[in-house]
């Protein structure tokens, strides 16, 4: 299988080619088609298997079908446990989406919120966030999640290990009920399995060892 076989937009194929990707990794080949089709998905895969592209590329394609002209409500949210992961994911969205008229930004704690709020006020299509800072800015009225079309819960087991699961549930409570949800986790502890049952609808399951 090639990336052309996944029926991606020319702009995405060009970006993938720029990065030297020749064929999709197993998780990309299995996850991209159902995500493009709007299905919910559980992906069991460790960091380093190419899972960021497995959700970023189809999200960008789906959002680009109806790119915002002026006002940009946040349409995709990626929730991840650490600042380092959030920055990596944001960088990947930059690279895959560089030929598309879409904006993304990243927010995380431990730094002043001023520049992050300014970026949000300019309008973004994709928001990459850690749970604590996201809930803070939602509570302050800087972020409205009512327009979310796709929600990605990344590294779900690490969220649990790091004690963020309560914050994650607060974020989920702010999301619209009608949405696409993608959950990625290296392992599937009982609490994450139970959470997945409450936030996903008839999900496709993709497992890569």
Helix-strand layout with pairing:
Elements: H1 10-18, H2 26-36, E1 41-44, H3 51-64, E2 76-79, H4 83-96, E3 104-107, H5 114-122, E4 126-129, H6 131-139, E5 150-153, H7 156-161, H8 165-174, E6 180-185, H9 190-199, E7 204-207
Parallel strand pairs: 1-6, 1-7, 2-4, 2-5, 3-4, 5-6
Briefly, what is this?
This protein has helices at 10-18, 26-36, 51-64, 83-96, 114-122, 131-139, 156-161, 165-174, 190-199; strands spanning 41-44, 76-79, 104-107, 126-129, 150-153, 180-185, 204-207.
Explain the overall architecture.
The chain is of the alpha/beta class. The protein is built from nine helices and seven strands. It has a seven-stranded parallel beta sheet with strand order 3-4-2-5-6-1-7, sandwiched between helices. The longest helix is centred in the N-terminal third of the chain and has 14 residues, at 51-64. It starts with 9 loop residues before the first helix and ends with a strand. The mean pLDDT is 94.
Kindly report the average pLDDT value. Answer: 94
- What count of helical segments does DSSP give? 9
Query: Termini separation (Å)?
Result: 19 Å
Summarize the amount of helix as a percent range. Answer: 40-55%
Oligomer: single chain
Strand order of the largest sheet: 3-4-2-5-6-1-7
Q: What is the overall shape?
A: globular
């Amino acid at each position: 299988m090639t990336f052309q076989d996944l029926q991606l937009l020319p702009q995405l194929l060009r970006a993938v080619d720029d990065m030297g990707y020749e064929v999709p990794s197993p998780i990309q080949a299995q996850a991209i088609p159902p995500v493009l089709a709007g299905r919910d998905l559980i992906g069991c895969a460790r960091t380093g298997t190419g899972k960021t592209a497995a959700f970023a590329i189809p999200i960008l394609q789906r959002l680009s079908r109806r790119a915002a002209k002026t006002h940009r409500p946040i349409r995709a949210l990626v929730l991840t446990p650490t600042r380092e992961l959030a920055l990596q994911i944001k960088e990947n969205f930059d690279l895959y989406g560089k030929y598309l008229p879409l904006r993304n930004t990243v927010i995380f704690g431990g730094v002043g919120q001023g520049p992050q709020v300014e970026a949000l006020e300019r309008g973004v299509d994709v928001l990459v966030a850690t749970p604590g800072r996201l809930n803070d800015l939602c509570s302050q009225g800087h972020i409205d999640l009512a327009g979310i079309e796709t929600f990605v819960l990344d590294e779900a087991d690490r969220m649990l290990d790091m004690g963020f699961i309560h914050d994650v549930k607060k974020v989920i409570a702010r999301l619209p009920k009608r949405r696409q949800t993608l959950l990625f986790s290296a392992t599937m502890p009982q609490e994450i399995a139970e959470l997945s049952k409450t936030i996903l609808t008839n999900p496709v399951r993709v497992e890569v060892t």
